[in-house]
């Protein structure tokens, strides 16, 4: 369970048009990225007290339409694209088959070159898949499904359910095995169950997509259509046993530690001892069964679904998992549904962008070593650490000043805060990929072997102490996260760039950008999920009943506020799904402002470009959220993403802050002054 700053929606649609970039090391502002408030992004005709988002971002939005290969275009995407250009340069250099390449350069260079070799991929057709298709076709009984599921899981195909390692909620020092719901082709279980016209239409289009993929595999139109119906029927039955996203926000709903015998009693038709042996899992007597009802549904399906229908389901998930590196017709059809239908992108991204992303996803710390050498200097790391310390101090003062929390719970909260550890930029020790066999010209095989390496790496953790130095994002990632079980915050080098952070920007803008990001991640330790873990990462109630009730009452204010916001058409935001991120946004901006105020104490910085430090701070926050979205991605994210759209991450937060009202002299009756104003931290 990790609370991420911004979640990537679908790998198939990440990326965008290509702004100018700089590949210089460390502390220079990339070309095209302003180091302070971007006056050119603002809409001077807008009233900051009526719609601050329009005021801060209006001209940027007008001048930055969504590129045709994107479903969303915002400041995150701009930075990700600059990073992607740097990664492209690294990979093109590494892919030149020079005899003096390092082992790391050979891995990433040959992987990238193989991915880019579309001619060879097309010439091979589906031949690389044939051994896997033959395995599925040869299944002679349902008893053999266990072996096949284990084989597919080991190679990155997450059919039927998910098996992984996880930190034990009850003992944060140890790693245990975990089985969880999975095996669906649509983004969420609600896509199968909702009966509104839009959901019904998406299911129809999904079935049509599955049928087309089967046709590309060589099935007749009639057989392909029948197969698609089987897939949809099986996945719908699985979805009925799955837990919804809001319920999954409560960690107590996901922690059911059971013996192997207890798991077997839920699904006696699945040979768990054989599965664990096949995946080479370490010995284990117990594991976490995240959603027991899901495995009860699987047991029912193992009886009711025929062997032939299971084969059809497995064939679909095989081609679905490997679609990005299959011949061009598969790639285009995959994009047609997952890119165009679900997210509204108009064009498939250029191949180099996709191949950069696949390399980063599968060999991320190998590629990340080269990225860090080019982009992240020690001065940036030191200044970021300084800001983290200042933000932690501000959060500590905030906790001490809370009127609604008793001293007993304050003491525990401060203890947890002081136990948070900080990871900045990149790992202290790089991951070893030496066992991953990368063969030039074997794109699909490289993809499969890299997934196999990662699956085995995760499984090998079971039964061992937790490694708190591990990163769950690669260094070039434009993102950050708080991990409640590790009790640490993590800031990859990829996000420590403009517009979030610049050594050339003044403190007010940096505190409004990366400072509020830091504050956001720190606050996650005390949101509706994070507050349920203690400072050591154990799922333990350290709140008095009165304090817990006071928290929930204040959190409900956020639920009500954000549930009133419209995502698109008649779709409202889900205030319960977005509660943690909204709490972190509101708390993060507040403590970042506290830290800036402390930093400015005794100084007289004055105005810059006509704005006071406080005004620059709020503009710094707003301008990292400038964005445009397609209707489709707005709908998808409202249903599945715990983050609010950029407009509400700005207006929803600032309307709760009297400091904003004062900075821009807003009247109490104006839209940017909410009544009542919500506040937890």
**Structure classification:** alpha+beta
The count of helical stretches stands at 27
Beginning-to-end CA distance, first to last residue: 22 Å
Strand content: 5-15%
Radius of gyration: 25 Å
Q: Helicity, in percent? A: 40-55%
Please state how the strands of the largest beta sheet are arranged side by side.
1-8-9-7
CATH homologous superfamily classification of one domain: Collagenase (Catalytic Domain)
Taking pLDDT < 50 over at least 5 consecutive residues as the criterion, the unreliable ranges are 4-34
CATH architecture of one domain: 3-Layer(aba) Sandwich
The CATH class of one domain is identified as Alpha Beta
Please give the largest β-sheet. 4 strands, mixed
Counted beta strands: 12
Question: What does the average pLDDT come to?
Answer: 93
CATH topology of one domain: Collagenase (Catalytic Domain)
CA-based shape: globular
Write the layout of secondary structure elements.
Elements (H helix, E strand, L loop, with lengths): L2 E2 L47 H12 L8 E3 H21 L7 H14 L1 H7 L5 H8 L7 H10 L6 E7 L7 E7 L8 H4 L3 H20 L4 H21 L3 H4 L8 E3 H7 L5 H7 L7 E4 L2 H13 L2 H16 L5 H16 L7 H12 L1 H12 L2 H24 L5 H13 L1 E5 L17 H17 L21 E3 L4 E5 L14 H18 L20 H19 L2 E3 L2 E2 L6 H22 L12 H11 L3 E3 L1 H10 L5 H9 L3 H6 L18
Helix pairs in contact: 2-3, 2-16, 2-17, 3-16, 3-20, 5-14, 6-12, 8-9, 8-15, 9-13, 9-14, 15-25, 16-17, 18-19, 18-21, 18-23, 21-23, 21-24, 23-26
């Amino acid at each position: 369970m990790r609370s991420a700053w911004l979640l990537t929606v679908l790998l198939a649609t990440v990326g965008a048009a290509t702004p100018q970039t700089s590949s210089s090391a460390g502390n220079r502002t990339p070309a095209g990225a302003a180091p302070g408030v971007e006056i050119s992004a603002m809409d001077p005709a807008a009233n900051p007290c009526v719609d601050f988002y329009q005021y801060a971002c209006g001209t940027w939005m007008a001048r930055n339409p969504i590129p045709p290969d994107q479903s969303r275009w915002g400041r995150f995407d701009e930075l990700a694209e600059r990073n992607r250009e740097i990664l492209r340069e690294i990979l093109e250099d590494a892919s030149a088959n020079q005899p003096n390449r390092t082992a790391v350069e050979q891995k990433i260079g040959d992987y990238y070159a193989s991915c880019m070799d579309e001619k060879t991929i097309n010439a091979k057709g589906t031949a690389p898949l044939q051994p896997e298709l033959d395995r599925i076709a040869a299944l002679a009984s349902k008893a053999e499904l266990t072996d096949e599921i284990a084989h597919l899981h080991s190679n990155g195909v997450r059919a039927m359910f998910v098996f992984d390692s996880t930190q034990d909620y009850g003992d944060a020092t140890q790693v245990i095995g975990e089985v969880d719901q999975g095996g669906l082709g649509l983004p969420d279980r609600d896509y199968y169950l909702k009966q509104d016209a839009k959901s019904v239409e998406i299911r129809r289009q999904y079935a049509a997509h599955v049928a087309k993929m089967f046709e590309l595999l060589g099935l007749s139109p009639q057989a392909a259509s029948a197969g698609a119906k089987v897939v949809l029927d099986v996945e719908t039955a699985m979805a009925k046993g799955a837990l919804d996203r809001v319920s999954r926000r409560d960690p107590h709903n996901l922690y059911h530690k059971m013996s192997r015998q207890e798991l077997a009693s839920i699904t006696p038709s699945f040979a768990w001892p054989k599965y664990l042996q096949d995946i080479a899992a370490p010995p284990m007597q117990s594991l976490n069964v995240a959603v027991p009802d899901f495995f009860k549904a699987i047991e029912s399906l193992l009886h009711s679904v025929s062997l032939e229908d299971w084969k059809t389901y497995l064939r679909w998930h095989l081609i679905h998992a490997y679609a990005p590196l299959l011949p061009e017709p598969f790639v285009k059809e995959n994009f047609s549904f997952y890119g165009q239908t679900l997210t509204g992108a108009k064009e498939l991204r250029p191949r180099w962008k996709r191949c950069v992303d696949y390399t980063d996803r599968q060999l991320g710390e190998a590629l990340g070593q080269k990225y860090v050498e080019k982009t992240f200097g020690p001065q940036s790391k030191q200044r970021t650490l300084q800001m983290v310390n200042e933000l932690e101090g501000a959060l500590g003062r905030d906790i001490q000043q809370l009127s609604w929390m008793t001293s007993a719970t304050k003491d525990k909260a401060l203890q947890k805060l002081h136990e948070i550890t900080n990871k900045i930029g990149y790992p202290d020790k790089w991951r070893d990929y030496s066992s991953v066999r990368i063969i030039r010209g074997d794109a699909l095989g490289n993809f499969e072997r890299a997934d196999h390496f990662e699956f085995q790496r995760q499984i090998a953790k079971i039964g061992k102490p937790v490694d708190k130095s591990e990163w769950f994002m690669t260094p070039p990632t434009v993102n950050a996260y708080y991990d409640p079980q590790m009790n640490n915050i993590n800031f990859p080098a990829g996000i420590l760039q403009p517009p979030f952070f610049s050594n050339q920007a003044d403190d007010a803008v940096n505190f409004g950008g990366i400072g509020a990001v830091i504050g956001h991640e720190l606050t996650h330790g005390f949101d509706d999920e994070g507050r349920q873990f203690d400072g050591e990462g154990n799922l333990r109630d350290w709140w008095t009943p009165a304090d817990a009730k006071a928290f929930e009452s204040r959190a409900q204010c956020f639920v009500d506020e954000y549930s009133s916001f419209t995502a698109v058409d008649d779709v409202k935001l889900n205030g319960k799904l977005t509660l943690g991120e909204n709490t972190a946004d509101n708390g993060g901006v507040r403590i970042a402002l506290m830290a800036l105020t402390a930093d400015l104490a005794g100084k007289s910085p004055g105005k810059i470009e006509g704005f006071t430090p406080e005004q620059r701070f709020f503009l710094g926050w707003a301008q990292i959220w400038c964005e445009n979205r397609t209707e489709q991605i707005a709908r998808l994210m409202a249903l599945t993403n715990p983050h609010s759209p950029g407009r509400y991450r700005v207006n929803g937060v600032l309307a709760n802050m009297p400091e904003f009202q004062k900075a821009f002299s807003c009247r109490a009756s104006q839209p940017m002054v909410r009544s009542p104003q919500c506040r937890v931290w």
